UniProtKB/TrEMBL annotation:
This is LPXTG-motif cell wall anchor domain-containing protein. Residues 390-409, 586-610 are annotated as: Disordered. It comes from the Bacteria. Keywords: Membrane, Transmembrane, Transmembrane helix.
Amino acid sequence: MRLKKKLLGIILSLVLVLGLMPGMSLTAKADATLSNLWIGESGEITSEGVVNGTGGTGTASVAVDGNDIVITLTDFVYSGAGNSRDNFLSGITYTGNYNLRVKLVGNNTITQTGNNGGNCAGFYSWKSASSVSFCGSGSLIVSAGNAKFNSFGISVAGPLSIEECTINATSGNATDYASTGIRAGGDINVFNADVTASCGTTSGKSYCNGIGAGSHNLVIMSGNVKATGTSSALYYGDDSYRTQMILSDGHGRVLSLQAGENEAGATDVTVENVANQKYVSIKTEKILHTHNFTYSAKGATITATCTDDCDIADGLTLTISAPTELTYDGRAKAASLSTGYNTTAFPDEYTIKYYQGASEVEAANVKAAGDYTAKVTVGDATASVDFTITSGGTSSGSSDNTNTTTDTSATVPYDDVAISTGSVNDITGTAAATAESNPFGTKIENNDNLTTLLALTPEEVEQGVNVWLDIQDMSATVPQADKDLVQNASTNLTVGMYLDINLFKKVGGNTATKITETNGTVKASILIPESLWKAGRTFEIIRVHDGVATAIEGTYDENTHVFTFETDKFSTYALAYKDLVSSNDSNTTSNSSSSNSSNSTQSTTPKTGDPNDNRVWYLLLLASLGGLGFLGLSKKKKVND
């Protein structure tokens, strides 16, 4: 029993060490997978982008958006048998489990030419776990040919929504079962769209409907719907299994509702009298909502509230955040407002005002150490955030920018800061990047010329570009080869610390990339750590790039401790300094010069940064394995004795 307890303890220790080792964290994987999709005569589509081999004209492209698969049809025209799945020949086929969105741009036509031996559809998606929506500003004419069993213009297994577009769906003749213009296994919702559905002819036991949703509903929020069927316009079985039409007067105003044997003989009817009619037409207009916002404030957030039936659900809050850099450096500190708010709910340009106690302070004067309050007002609501500017001074060179009143529940790294299309923005040290540290108060001083400096193309600017300069202390990890190059280039300087300086750009939704060289010099400024402050001291930057060390002069403001320099290459840098030589120092001996040289060499490897070494974890792992081996040998020896 004692041995079992020891063995269990060592195993648990081993698991703990493995869990703490670097690189042992797990990363969640995205759920969406692009597969089980065919357009026209293409093979199975498994990657995003324009679909090739469809056999049609125009453009069909595919993308993954979260758990949705998005098909965009742009003036796409296809005519043919299509692909065969589940004994269905169809122009577009999807048999996966994710929701499907079809965006229509321009005029699109899909003509499926039939299947005399089985079933056919113009558009076919038959997995009950997924929903299908048609949307966009364009139109789609979709039809299926004649079939032995079933012919459907559009056939989906789950709910179907048609929004802001025009759909005309027609099925062909069906010999043995059903012909339906639009068929769904869930509710069909129409919102501000024009929908026409009709079927072919049938024979034998077959039935023909314009629209069929089984025992579900055709819900017309707004828009125009016209259905024609030789059996009935809307599928109608018995009382427990039929498609009913529901009108939502909250969103659409009914202009007319007519039904009859055909369009020519249609008369005005009520919803209750639609059943078994072979022709049904409903015309509605969208009721435009009049926004009437009121505003309330809680802490740092203002919330906009509209009247009932408002179609705006997102972007209804505006939050004020304290400055991210709260250590005195001689520069004004600016609070910021959240981005992404709805401009209908918050239509104006809002000004942040600053106060010390009851006295208002000009924004340009929010720089001295002390307590401040930043406020923003919308309507009758005022949100505020308190913050304190400290006098600064940390021995490691990392400013303590903690602000206990700032909401940090949603941290945002540089890579996730929202990008504004058509503009180039410097987001270095901005409040939007709440997850990033900026220990040296880094700024790009000439950020008004980034398009030229980065040689950005008009296409990149159109997508929107975020740019940031990241400077971190790398004294503990700098390669020895870089140290040697710096030492050779700084014989009369003392190295205070090594810096890893990287310039990044992110274009649209693409991955952020490092920029190693620029088209001109970038003017950057940093706050010198207090541990390196000394009266009369001057600073230089030594750059190591492609195996070459280059000394770069700059300007140092001894009052604000801000060092400004220019560079066009980005890699390893050394922050070096030189002190004024006093009259007593001018008579030093060669021995003391040698001693100073020795001290200078030692100062090039300061104990800054993260001192942890991954090798420690591997030693602990080996120790645990050794313990297991020792127990095994001890047990064997006892048995032999």
